[in-house]
Design a protein that fits this description.
2 domains; globular
Length: 257
């Protein structure tokens, strides 16, 4: 059975983590497949947004500790496993295409790392997220020690990463970590509606904006790079279409060119 299911809806690629019998705990195969699907979506001009969700009762409960306990991985194999996790989160964060994570049930450890790597996070109010790593003698990945403080502030990130307490979708929304919450039965519909909104944006401009936000440039660097990005966009068809649509009071139709 595949560990990640892929389907398309308009300009949206829907990726579903699929190990429901293990609450979608990550494995080497899942990481590899997820990376491959994300890379393929980012290279496809007809895909303008990715929605990432989990099958069954959880988004992803993190590492498969049962597999870890019984594993005879060599140090080299352990390093390869860790590298795959880093690459999966890095791909989500750095790809040009925006990613929406739709979280219900549990998103723990590596699952939380994947979820907060997304550009937008939609959760059910009672979904539970957490970083238990320090409590069980391990460590986080996916750039969390840099990304989480930027999203929720250093004080709250310290509490979440060191104390390891779980938090709900309702709390994530209050803290500004989640974009929105939705009932369980309409979670994917809400995430899909957000994806459609993103897909209607100018792809070239959106990609440049995502990259700039990820870089977290100093004000001095931003003041010098923003004009260059703007001037590059002013030479595109999408820029001309956006200006024309505004003048004509209609919705623009962007080509990504």
């Amino acid at each position: 059975m595949p560990t990640v299911l892929m389907s398309r809806s308009g300009y949206t690629a829907n990726l579903v983590l699929y190990r429901p019998e293990r609450l979608n705990a990550v494995s080497e195969e899942m990481y590899r497949t997820l990376i491959d699907e994300l890379v393929a979506a980012d290279a496809d001009p007809d895909i303008r947004c990715v929605v990432l969700s989990g099958a069954g009762r959880a988004f992803c409960v993190g590492a498969d500790l049962k597999a870890h306990r019984s594993s005879t991985r060599t140090p080299t194999e352990q390093a390869q496993y860790v590298d795959l996790g880093q690459r999966a989160c890095a791909q989500i964060q750095t790809m040009r295409t925006p990613v929406v994570a739709a979280v219900s049930g549990y998103a723990l450890g590596a699952g939380a790392e994947i979820a907060i790597s997304a550009d937008f996070l939609v959760m059910t109010e009672d979904a539970q997220m957490g970083f238990p790593e320090v409590s069980i003698g391990t460590f986080v990945g996916g750039g969390v020690t840099s990304r989480l403080p930027r999203l929720v502030g250093l004080r709250r990130a310290t509490d979440l990463l060191i104390l390891g307490d779980r938090f709900t979708g309702r709390q994530a929304l209050e803290w500004g970590l989640a974009h929105s919450t939705a009932p369980e039965q309409s979670l994917l519909e809400s995430a899909g509606a957000l994806a459609e909104t993103l897909a209607a944006k100018a792809p070239l401009a959106l990609a440049k904006m995502k990259a700039a936000l990820y870089r977290d440039d100093s004000i001095e660097v931003a003041l010098s790079t923003e004009p260059r990005e703007l001037l590059e966009l002013m030479g595109t068809r999408d820029w001309a279409e956006g200006v024309a649509a505004f003048a004509e009071r209609r919705s623009p139709s962007f080509e990504g060119k």
